[in-house]
Amino acid sequence: MASAAEKSTKERLLAVVEDLEVLSRELIEMLALSRSQKLLQTGEDVQVLQLLVQRDREFQELMEVAQQQGTVHQEMQLLEKEVEKRDSDIQQLQKQLKEAEHILATAVYQAKEKLKSIDKARKGSISSEEIIKYAHRISASNAVCAPLNWVPGDPRRPYPTDLEMRSGMLGHMANMPTNGVNGHLPGDALAAGRLPDVLTPHYPWQSSDVSVGMLPPHHGNDFGLEPPGHNKENEDDVEAMSTDSSSSSSDSD
Amino acid sequence: METEEQARTRFQSELEFIQCLANPNYLNFLAQRGFLRERPFINYLKYLLYWKEPEYAKFLKYPHCLHMLELLQYEHFRKELVNAQCAKFIDEQQLLHWQHYSRKRTRLQQALAEQQQQAQQPPHGNATAK
What we know:
By secondary structure, chain A is an all-alpha fold. Chain A has six helices and no strands.
């Protein structure tokens, strides 16, 4: 751009105008003097006139330059306005693009969630017939719903009673005498690993109708080793069962 | 390697054992004899979680055992089971829950009977209200 030494057009114009002013004042003074004194200066008036003409020419040139600069400046302003307009257009498009991206991202996310839940549902799908069969099985035997004529004193329970436990396969596997409320110790059954006597199970909860072909998952038979995975030691998840909670067995009816 | 016969026996014994866990008195028994503190037993309880899968769960006659098994995974629960009061509390709550559906059903039946009674009264004309 303009170096520090270059003066702006305005300054130059002002300088020339000042010069003109000075020169014209000199000329007028000279004329006034020469009229009163009737003396002719040697060529000074011509010099002054020449300088005057020269300055006037400079002035005219500078005015043209100034005019050109003015047009250029106007064009610049127009272009700046255009640039501003384009800028705002771009910003508007940017905003819309951002919005669209956001909406699409949400849509994609929701679609993914839907797909996940569809997969989950498909994985857990069981035939309704089986569910009904099972529901009938556990309800008919009063395992999940008390019999309608149940009164306190009725020996039936939602869990296998001592008698049922002792007469099962596990009960017969353990050779230890029954002590306490319940008869058998699971450790024995595992450690023994021997085949039990062939006994007809008395209760349907001990055998399964379709146990043929159904096998438990294989395990290394050594539960002393730490299994992989985390232990549920998270106390926050467990409702604390305080031992001094007052018995709340009163019937709510 | 175990034979198929052994595997079937193991299946049956594990089926019996897991259902025994539905009995809070039995759980108290196990806790008092220190079984619930032994690491191999705890690992065994974790292994038994396979009964939650539908293809195994369909053999369970007493489904309460699954809930007990889940609770048994927590150390806090295992520790509390040593107290007889705790076991008694669980037993009572279990029985109440067991009776819940039959009570609800009787209540519904009563409500239905009352409704029918009320519906029958107005058509009998200007009989004196009870």
